[in-house]
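New here. Invent one.

***
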Amino acid sequence: NNRKDSRGDRLTLNENDPSGIEGFYSLDVLGTKKWLTNIQIQSYSPHQFLGFRLSPFLNSSLGLISDDKENLFKGKLYSKIGIGIMFTNDYLIFSNFTLSLAWYNSIPGQGNNIFKANAVGNRYFQLMDFDFGKPELVEYNPNIVN
């Protein structure tokens, strides 16, 4: 190793980390070892209400983080428990939106027993969606081989 370790080398539980806890942000929770689990239960309704399909869900995230010299499983457990509902309507420009409420046991620098509205995204189980783009001409040339 030809350089000094920096803060950027450390692991976090922050939401901007793809393997972080959504809605969690603290510059004080850093380490070199991390354990994180995310669990989500979601239901899809075949029925519609005012043109919307409703998809309720529950999810939870549990995370531990520690340094090299500490036992990972003896550290503080950071958790999030969320409940929400996803509204889907294929005829709208924004085909779905989510309302949710999440509880965090602790976020250092923010406090304990924190509730956040719409802190829970639904990135795990989405209804099938299509990508609509600007129409364009696709040229066909049988002489071009990839």
About this structure: The CA atoms of residues 106 and 112 lie 4 Å apart. DSSP finds no helices and six strands in the chain.
